[in-house]
Write the structure tokens for this entry.
Amino acid sequence: MRPRSRHILAAAAVQLGTLVTFVAAASGVAAAHVEYVTDADNGDPIAFLTSALSDPVVVLALGAGGLAVVGTMAGYLRVQPLRADVAAIRRALVDYADLLPWLLRLSIGLPMVGAGFAGYLFTPLVTAADTGVPVRLFGVAVGFALLFGLATRFVAGVALASYLALLPVHPSLFFAFEYVAGLLAIVIVGGGRPSADHVIARLAANDETVYSRFDPFYRRIAVPAGEALDPYRRYVPTVVRIGMGIVFAYLALAEKLLAPNQALAVVEQYGLSTLLPVPPELWVLGAAVTELFLGVLLVAGLFTRAASTAAFVVFTTTLFGLADDPVLAHISLFGLVSVLLVTGAGPFSADLAVFRSPNERGAPEMGPDAVRTAASGGSGASGTPRSVERSADRDPGDADR
């Protein structure tokens, strides 16, 4: 392909991608947690789809949008423009890999504290009145322990076990399924640094400290636990990616396609058809298709960072578009898609096969367990794993070879 033609196609791909992003963002206003802002009945999904798909405007808009997205993806794979830019962005994001445990703790700890003070368990759909669990104490205790990074793996494990045990009793907890991915990831990576676990482990590793003489936990439990879980650290991006994909797909099905009246009520409640004068059915189907498509991309691990960026846009537009949608309920979602921006797709992903990108694997960039390293006597002071430094020194074109 001639250089001039290549640049023209690259420019066209960028422009088309910008248009698709705008359309996805507009649809995102009606996306996310419909259950949080309306009490309307579910409605008949078959009747809704039959009526919506009989409208030529809806069909043409969805068809054009789908072709635009698929065309943009195919064009990018064919031309692969902006290689150096993409590689530079990847290297910059990978440099934050040593902070992933902290990011995970913030992503789950902050909304847990907020949920505790607000009086709900994981999701606003399960309140203190709905369960015998001491919701406020549980949320605040778990949240602050995660934020401080104190007994991180144990606390995350307790929270994860509690969620799974209560899920059959309160199926509405599935609307906050991202907690499963986030808590499991924290169990795997531990507290990292900065964290109370890391500080205490450094005390335990120093034979000159008073604490090291009666250390009851870190050398006996934290170090063996870290050694046992280390082989699974490389799968953290996969865990987060699949968990977020399931969340998106579930929201598309449970809150839009299978409960169209709720979604239509949101469109009417917030005057979205006035914002963009299209049929209300197009708003609902556009949001559902956007979420479902993002979910499929994340589960498959295809265009993971691009899908995560689109998800970030969807969450942001939702917060501005739906004034009653609780901000706290989205912090975990924001945090986990940010994790994927740093790690990429991880193992078992289409990105590895399509782009053959070394820093999409997520494995070496995760680095060692900082707490275990400190408790074992290591310095634990390096902010960047050596594998990340090697990745940063890689030639800009390597990421797309």
